[in-house]
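Look over this today:
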Amino acid sequence: MSTLTVTNIQATGETASRAVSGVAAALLFYGSQAIIGSRNISSVADIGTGQLTISFSNHFADDDWVGHHTTEDEQPYINTNRTASGVTLVNKTRTDATSDCSDGNATIHGDLA
């Protein structure tokens, strides 16, 4: 069996490469609405209670990507108002009220531009 060792990976046609340790095209860990760690995230803006807008450092080829957003005890989701350059994360309580959360994460998978 052979072993292929690489530091970065780039799909055919993409201009941006990704570190092999984070194959997701974008990754965000946050706590108390502040960035703890990220990959391909240029900024995070707190736009209201329980709402964060994230901007990607390297844009996606289009808005045809998939993401997953989790928090400790709420019902988070990724807003349908997403673009190739960013997205809004929303956190709601079980009673459907928008609420800030203590920590969460989001992963985005798709083709980079």
